[in-house]
Fold this sequence. Notes:
Blueprint: H1 11-18, H2 20-27, H3 30-36, H4 42-66, H5 83-94, H6 98-101, H7 106-118, H8 122-137, H9 139-151, H10 169-181, H11 187-214
Helix pairs in contact: 1-11, 2-11, 4-5, 4-7, 4-8, 4-11, 7-11, 8-10, 8-11
Pfam families: Heme_oxygenase
GO molecular function, one term: metal ion binding
Binding site for heme b: 16, 23, 130, 177
Amino acid sequence: MTVAPVAPPLLSALLREGTRTEHQEAESQGFVTRLLAGELSVAAYASLAAQQHTIYTALEEASAQIASDARGGALVFAELTRVPAIERDLEHLYGPEWRDAAAPLPSTARYAARLREAGAGLPEYAAHAYTRYLGDLSGGQVIKRMMQRHYGMGAAGLEFYEFPEIPKAKPFKDVYRERLDGLGLDDTETSRAVAEAQRAFQLNRAMFAELGALHP
């Protein structure tokens, strides 16, 4: 009897399974749980938004770099661009002089430096883009609802979580995963991508730890 060959695992599945522990550890950081439980303040959220500005500025610089890659260009979507929305949020949260108030924490600066390095390698870029953007379209929506519920925030200050050009998140996420799976990474590149995704969650966790110390 002929046995059908087993298809190799898809990159999107490997990234999901390979980061399960790191993802849970990042989400269980005290800062995150207290913010979502309504135990902190809008000021704590503003600090988080300030760090996101540094992170997404670096990520979207990497996107611009990878866009010309024969394979990587498939992962760059204008609909996902976040920096303009974050800047509008920060102007609402801090006022017109928001750049003076939105200084990156040391952990955030390390995160951004790694993102800029990652722009030179497709597996690394794919890992960071996957963890950030799909997270924004999933768990990020929970953050928006909790900020509205617990802190009385309206649309202003939460534009980061709005994707006006993506009316339905699930079909878009499905397309994004298909693009990931179609990158054609070899075994070595796939291993690099999974390791980098784990590193991305670790960098995010370190940032949450610093934010927790800033907002005890």
